[in-house]
């Protein structure tokens, strides 16, 4: 048709550059501030950690020179370089030169004739200001000759200097004790994933596809593990299956300290996550497919494999990778119950806290991040497909009562419920016992936290403080950030970058983030190091660690808002912030509250993100559980763990009441 | 609620007192001493020196050491009061300590003072390795009490033994270094090879083996004597065994951090830490203190422990620490099969 | 008519406006002037660029090139908040948690108006849109039509110089739509506010607009009053998009006549040269039925005999399908009044003579492909 397939070209020349309104500037500025927050609290620390993993220590033999006297103690002036000496003698294996920050290298091997009884004197010096060696424990970093008798000379130890390279990684992969952990971690994660997903699937199946009773109660029980730190089931398992455990016969002599304990504990703490995801997947399945299967006279077994499983497949895959990620990055549980079974997350802790080998800690962190990111990426991919399924129009499945199915479902759920409640109950019981197993009378002795290591009751109040701060500041930052990224005009690249940064925290294990914070925030050259050791760094770390899920919740809520609100508001010449406070926040209030409780509960229970960052003044309840268990005060640890449980349960109830109250008061518009 | 109110009142009172005191100098003091002892230490010090205020930074030995090392180029602490000597040796070898001979240092047992003149650090008290033996559980398992380290390698004890992992526990390391000193390098490793066969698992902390023994989780825990005495006092059926070959030990010590802006106040504090008065104070928590003749017997503390303390070569321990730990790790760590 | 409101003075002018989304050109060289007080409709199929043009006028999505002048001021690069317009969207975009009153008052706040003044203005607006009693309710408690009126009230609350309506009636059901379009038109007349409405519904455009801008593939096909657009479509697209149009493949012959098969017809004047392939077009209601025996070969009239093949009763008229082998395979559609059918005694299967009035038979460029 004429005039329509006009192949006209746009004339060359400048493109119209929009003038930014005050709101545009404000919103872009705000977004940059929050992006900057994410860069400072995530990208830069991770970079610091990565560079730490490449920071090595090496003894530079060429930096040392020696002189040897005759028997009378007279030096003839011949200067011997250590490197040359080593080439002649081959006394020091080149591999020994690569060492840690704490490395020391004795030198007597370079002198085949050395005897500590000989009257021969030695002189030693650094050739540059960077060289360092010890005489005994005394540091010598000057370039002047140091004269030593033979007996003292054997106390000379060369010290390494800083270098950069792959040596840490080479060292890591040539130490079986270390890299075995990769295998262990993967193995534990895979086994836990298979068992948890299977158990959670049938649990969700029973709740979704049967007409059994007490579904609400079971749902509640299934969610309970979210309210406790991951190491609590470990403590429970000690009381259940430890050498003095009440049910240790069930293990038939096997030890709970090791993979068995880690797997059982992992099942406990990852169960709610798997259950939620699979339950959602089952809830959206289409009843019409079942009707079709029934009309084709398919057996129940066949229907299950051709309709149920394919319908829930994204949920299953997603749950599998979420559980995998939780298990492989978890630190508290293997720390408590892992025994000699080394896993990556605990290795990081041992390297850093036990040996102060920060470089190796960074290397293990890098190794741990790889499977975590991989699992995370697959989960995201699958989730996006699940959303597509969700939006398709389908008829929800309504289960029909069936006495047999309902009974089997009930019995199964009762078993799982008993497992979860049992774990919590044994902790509470043990916490009230005076001296397990010798004095089983009840007492509150184990609640005298101030008499134990771990920070006492102060740590409990600190945790509540951390939870509240994290909830308040975190919700504000996350929701405002999500609003800005969703509603800012133009600025595509900036927004895409922001989205990427917002997704990143989920892929970073808490241990890794915490360690990265040490490197970044504890650096003397970082002006932000004033927050090191304060409550602020714990809040920041928690907010950043739990950023992604909160961000996604906020984005989902915001996407449901009419996209034209901002246009209307601008046309009415009202500031966007007025719209934000008068409309956006009130309408999204249920989601805002959800984000707050999520952040609160997680800040209360997290161990891994804060274990490197707390200070004596800011010790936390979850850390106290860890430290009390570490010190052997297991019953008080259980008591503190249960305090976290009750606190979170109360917080949940308050959240529920507030949400309801808020709905009644401010969301009257929802009811017609 | 009453508890809360009390805490609050005491907090307020404490804050008021703190501001009221004439604190001319503030010292940042890093320590690994038990939290419950710190207030007492500061109080005793302030009785004679009200003009110096102590700001405690307390954490476990490993973490405080790590913190000090991390702050090497920008030290935050003025004084370290109550940290393992092996840790202080590490700091010394980094040139981080200010050598100072406190007034009255000559009164101390020379074992407790750094060999250099002036000494870089001075000791306060010692904690000594010991074996915690749960008589009830041992009897159930049909065990007889060991009397020496070598006894512990008897196959009878297989799976009934727990010790701390030297890679994460100072107590674990002092055990290992003492064995290497007692039995020689080769003999030491041979001993540990044999011992490893009996070990059920290695714990992260040094006090845990004894607490596990106290709670019957394991019959025998290699730990330190003081911990055992505490558990015994709490009613655990424990016997604290001092192996006949001698036992490893480490001490808590004090040092001035090089580069402190408050050198004079720091010296005043360190002077105080070697006084008899201070040593009496240490004795409440520790059976072995640096000032000879001060120590009062501690309840349930095993007899003959002082004599059993080996002539510990701290320099050997510090200079070979990295190599020993690496060797230990390659021999015993990371075995995936748990022993039962 | 609205002439006493609409002056000849241009209020909004768009010059050489382009909008590119990557390589795709959504608007190509748009130039348009809207007079003060005028009601203009952007009409076109979906994807034609009409909404893009509206959003460019509002500053919601900036054009790539070109200028927009409003009230004599260059607003080309101004953000929406610095322009002067009120806007109503298809989704109403009412703030769900605010009452009707607060929704309307939203734009009145922070403008130096006192509380009493705002309350009075809100009441006035509620009256104006015919919902005086609903102020305390929430949007969800109103019907779609009522919500759209509130959105309109909110948009005009601050007396903007320009009212933009983005498919305001599309979400409503047919009856409400017809009713509301009348009301909006009335309101616009009363207020005399320059209005631009985007719609894909030609009926809506014809009924409401002072002028219609027909758009397709990012260009303006024609601008004109509803009658102009309907009676004098500038091209086949406009002719086809608005109303019904018979299209007959044809060629221009001597004297500008159109040859169809063996016959040639006189037609509305055009500028095609002899031999140009064209499409001859006539609207169904323009075909005149003649009584039996009428001379089909009268050289002064465009008459032709046809077979009345099929009749369909559509209430106010009959839609008839007429055949003649000279038109090839295609049928002519004619809408005959009930009167005419009765008067001429028309029925299916009848042979009859029709006339294609010279001034209603138009020639358009024939599209090259299919």
Q: Which features does this protein show?
A:
heterotrimer, A: 672 residues, alpha+beta, MetI-like fold, 3 domains, four-stranded antiparallel beta sheet, 26 helices, disordered N terminus, B: 340 residues, alpha/beta, D-Maltodextrin-Binding Protein, domain 2, 2 domains, 11 strands, globular, disordered C terminus
Outline the structure in words.
- The complex is a heterotrimer of chains A (672), B (340) and C (370).
- With 672 residues, chain A is an alpha+beta fold.
- Chain A folds into three domains: 58-163, no CATH class; 180-429, Orthogonal Bundle (MetI-like fold), CATH 1.10.3720; 484-560 and 588-670, no CATH class.
- In chain A, 62% of the residues lie in helices and 7% in strands.
- Chain A has helices at residues 22-53, 82-89, 94-97, 150-153, 167-173, 176-209, 215-223, 232-241, 259-283, 287-295, 300-311, 313-329, 332-337, 344-354, 358-391, 403-432, 456-487, 492-507, 510-521, 535-545, 547-559, 565-571, 576-587, 589-605, 621-630, 634-666, and strands at residues 55-58, 64-68, 80-81, 98-99, 105-106, 121-126, 133-135, 138-140, 146-149, 156-158, 161-164, 433-435, 439-442.
- Chain A has a four-stranded antiparallel sheet with strand order 3-2-6-9. Chain A has a four-stranded antiparallel sheet with strand order 5-10-7-8, with no helix packed on it. In chain A, strands 4-1-11 form a three-stranded antiparallel sheet.
- In chain B, β6 (161-164), α6 and β7 (199-203) form a beta-alpha-beta unit.
- Chain C has helices spanning 50-58, 100-105, 115-128, 144-156, 174-191, 202-208, 226-231, 236-241, 338-344; strands spanning 10-21, 24-35, 39-43, 65-70, 73-74, 86-89, 162-166, 194-199, 211-216, 219-224, 246-252, 258-260, 263-265, 277-282, 288-290, 303-313, 317-323, 332-337, 351-355, 362-365.
- In chain C, α3 crosses α4 (144-156).
- With 370 residues, chain C is of the alpha+beta class.
- Chains in contact: A-B, A-C.
- At the A-B interface, α6 and α14 of A face β2, α3, α4, β7 and α7 of B.
């Amino acid at each position: 048709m004429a005039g329509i397939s006009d192949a006209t070209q746009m004339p060359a020349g400048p493109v119209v550059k929009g003038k930014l309104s005050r709101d545009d500037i404000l919103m872009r500025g705000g977004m940059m501030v929050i992006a900057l927050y994410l860069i400072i609290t995530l990208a830069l620390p991770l970079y610091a950690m990565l560079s730490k993993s490449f920071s090595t220590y090496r003894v530079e033999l060429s930096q040392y020179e020696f002189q040897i006297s005759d028997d009378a103690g007279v030096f003839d002036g011949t200067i011997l370089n250590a490197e040359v000496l080593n080439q002649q003698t081959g006394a020091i294996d080149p591999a020994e030169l690569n060492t840690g920050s704490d490395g020391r290298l004795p030198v007597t091997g370079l002198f085949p004739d050395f005897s500590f009884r000989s009257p021969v004197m030695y002189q030693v010096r650094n050739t540059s200001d960077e060289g360092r060696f010890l005489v005994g424990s005394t540091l010598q970093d000057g370039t002047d000759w140091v004269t030593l008798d033979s007996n003292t000379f054997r106390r000379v130890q060369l010290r390494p200097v800083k270098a950069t390279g792959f040596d840490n990684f080479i060292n890591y992969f040539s130490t079986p004790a270390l890299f075995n952990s990769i295998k262990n971690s993967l193995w534990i994660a895979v086994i836990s994933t298979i068992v948890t997903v299977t158990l959670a699937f049938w649990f969700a199946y029973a709740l979704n596809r049967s007409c059994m009773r007490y579904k609400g109660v079971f749902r509640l029980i299934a969610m309970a593990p979210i309210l406790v730190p991951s190491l609590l089931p470990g403590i429970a398992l000690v009381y259940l299956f430890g050498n003095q455990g009440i049910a240790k016969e069930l293990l038939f002599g096997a030890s709970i300290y090791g993979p068995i304990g880690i797997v059982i504990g992992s099942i406990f703490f990852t169960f709610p996550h798997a259950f939620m995801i699979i339950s959602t997947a089952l809830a959206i399945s289409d009843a019409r497919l079942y009707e079709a299967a029934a009309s084709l006279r398919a057996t129940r077994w066949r229907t299950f494999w051709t309709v149920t499983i394919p319908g829930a497949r994204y949920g299953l895959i997603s749950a599998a990778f979420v559980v995998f990620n939780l298990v492989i990055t978890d630190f508290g549980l293997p720390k408590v119950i892992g025994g000699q079974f080394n896993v990556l997350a605990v290795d990081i802790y041992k390297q850093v806290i036990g040996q102060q080998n920060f470089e190796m800690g960074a290397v293990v962190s890098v190794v741990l991040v790889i499977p975590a990111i991989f699992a995370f990426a697959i989960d995201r991919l699958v989730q996006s497909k699940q959303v597509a399924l969700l939006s398709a129009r389908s008829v929800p499945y309504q289960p029909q009562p069936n006495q047999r199915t309902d009974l089997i479902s009930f019995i199964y759920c009762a078993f799982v419920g008993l497992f979860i409640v049992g774990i919590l109950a044994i902790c509470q019981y043990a916490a009230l016992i005076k001296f397990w197993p010798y004095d089983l009378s009840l007492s509150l002795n184990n609640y005298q936290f101030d008499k134990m290591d771990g920070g006492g009751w102060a740590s409990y109040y600190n945790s509540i403080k951390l939870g509240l701060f994290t909830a308040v500041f975190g919700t504000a930052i996350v929701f405002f950030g999500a609003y800005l990224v969703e509603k800012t005009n133009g600025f595509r690249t900036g927004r895409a970058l922001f989205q990427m940064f917002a997704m990143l925290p989920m892929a970073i294990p808490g241990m890794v983030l915490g360690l990265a914070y040490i490197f970044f925030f504890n650096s003397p050259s970082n002006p932000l190091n004033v927050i090191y050791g304060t409550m602020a760094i714990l809040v920041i770390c928690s907010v950043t660690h739990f950023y992604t899920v909160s961000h996604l919740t906020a984005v989902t809520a915001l996407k449901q808002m009419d996209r034209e609100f901002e246009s209307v508001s601008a046309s009415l010449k009202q500031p966007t912030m007025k719209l934000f406070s008068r409309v956006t926040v009130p309408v999204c209030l249920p989601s805002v509250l959800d984000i707050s409780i999520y952040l609160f509960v997680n800040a209360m229970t997290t161990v891994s993100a804060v274990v490197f960052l707390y200070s004596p003044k800011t010790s936390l309840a979850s850390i106290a559980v860890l430290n009390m268990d570490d010190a052997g005060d297991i019953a008080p640890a259980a008591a503190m763990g249960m305090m976290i449980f009750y606190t979170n349960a109360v917080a949940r109830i308050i959240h529920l009441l507030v949400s309801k109250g808020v709905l009644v008061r401010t969301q009257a518009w929802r009811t017609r | 609620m009453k508890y809360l109110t009390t805490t609050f009142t005491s907090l307020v009172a404490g804050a008021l007192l703190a501001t009221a005191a004439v604190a001319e100098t503030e010292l940042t003091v890093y320590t690994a001493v038990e939290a419950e002892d710190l207030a007492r230490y500061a109080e005793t010090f302030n009785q004679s020196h009200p003009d110096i205020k102590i700001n405690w930074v307390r954490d476990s030995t490993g973490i405080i050491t790590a913190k000090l090392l991390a702050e090497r180029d920008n030290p935050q602490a003025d004084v370290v009061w109550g940290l393992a000597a092996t840790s202080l040796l590490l700091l010394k070898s980094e040139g981080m300590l200010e050598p100072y001979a406190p007034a009255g240092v000559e009164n101390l047992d020379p074992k407790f003072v750094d060999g250099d003149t002036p000494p870089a650090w001075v000791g306060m008290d010692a904690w000594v390795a010991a074996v915690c033996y749960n008589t009830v559980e041992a009897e159930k398992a049909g065990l007889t009490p060991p009397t020496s380290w070598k006894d512990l390698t008897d196959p009878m004890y297989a799976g009934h033994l727990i010790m701390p992992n030297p890679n994460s526990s100072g107590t674990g390391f002092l055990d290992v270094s003492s064995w290497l000193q007692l039995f020689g390098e080769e003999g030491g490793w041979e001993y540990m090879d044999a011992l490893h066969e009996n070990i059920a698992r290695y714990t992260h902390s040094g006090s845990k083996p004894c607490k596990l023994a106290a709670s019957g989780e394991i019959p025998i825990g290699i730990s330190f004597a003081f911990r055992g005495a505490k558990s015994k006092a709490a009613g655990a059926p424990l016997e604290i065994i001092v192996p006949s070959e001698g036992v490893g030990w480490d001490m808590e010590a004090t040092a001035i951090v090089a580069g402190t802006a408050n050198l004079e106040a720091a010296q005043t504090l360190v002077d105080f830490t070697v006084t008899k008065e201070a040593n009496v104070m240490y004795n409440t928590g520790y059976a072995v203190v640096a000032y000879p003749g001060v120590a009062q017997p501690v309840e349930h503390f095993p007899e003959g422990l002082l004599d059993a303390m080996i002539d510990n070569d701290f320099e050997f321990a510090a200079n070979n620490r990295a190599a020993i730990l690496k060797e230990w790790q390659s021999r015993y760590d990371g075995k995936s099969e748990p022993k039962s | 008519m609205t002439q006493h409101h609409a002056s000849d003075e241009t209020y909004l002018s768009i010059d050489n406006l382009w909008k590119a989304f990557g390589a795709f050109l959504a608007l190509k060289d748009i130039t348009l002037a809207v007079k003060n007080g005028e009601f203009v409709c952007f009409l076109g199929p979906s994807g034609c660029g009409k909404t893009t043009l509206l959003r460019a006028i509002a500053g919601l999505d900036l054009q790539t090139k070109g200028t927009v002048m409003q009230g004599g001021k260059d607003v080309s690069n101004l953000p929406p908040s610095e322009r002067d317009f009120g806007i109503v969207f298809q989704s109403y975009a009412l703030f769900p948690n605010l009452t009707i009153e607060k929704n309307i008052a939203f734009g009145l706040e922070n403008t130096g108006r006192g509380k009493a003044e705002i309350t009075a203005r809100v009441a006035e607006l509620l009256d104006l849109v015919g919902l005086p009693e609903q102020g305390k309710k929430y949007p969800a408690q109103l019907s779609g039509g009522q919500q759209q009126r509130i959105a309109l009230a909110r948009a005009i609350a601050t007396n903007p110089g320009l009212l933009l309506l983005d498919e305001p009636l599309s979400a409503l059901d047919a009856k409400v739509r017809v009713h509301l379009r009348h009301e909006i038109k009335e309101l616009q007349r009363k207020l005399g506010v320059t209005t631009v409405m985007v719609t894909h519904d030609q009926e809506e455009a014809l009924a409401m607009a002072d002028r219609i801008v027909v758009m397709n593939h990012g260009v303006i096909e024609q601008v004109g009053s509803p009658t102009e657009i309907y009676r004098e479509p500038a091209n086949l697209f406009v002719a086809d998009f608005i109303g019904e149009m018979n299209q007959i493949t044809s060629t221009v012959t001597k004297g500008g006549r159109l040859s169809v098969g063996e016959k040639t017809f006189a037609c509305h004047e055009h500028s095609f040269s002899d031999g140009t392939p064209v499409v001859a077009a006539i609207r169904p209601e323009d075909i005149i039925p003649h009584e039996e025996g009428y001379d089909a070969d009268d050289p002064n009239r465009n008459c032709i005999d046809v077979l009345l093949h099929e009749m369909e009763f559509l209430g106010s008229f009959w839609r008839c399908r007429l055949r003649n082998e000279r038109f090839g395979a295609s049928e002519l559609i004619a809408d005959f009044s009930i009167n005419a059918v009765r008067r001429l005694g028309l029925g299916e299967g009848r042979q009859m003579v029709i006339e294609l009035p010279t001034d209603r038979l138009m020639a358009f460029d024939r599209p090259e492909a299919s």
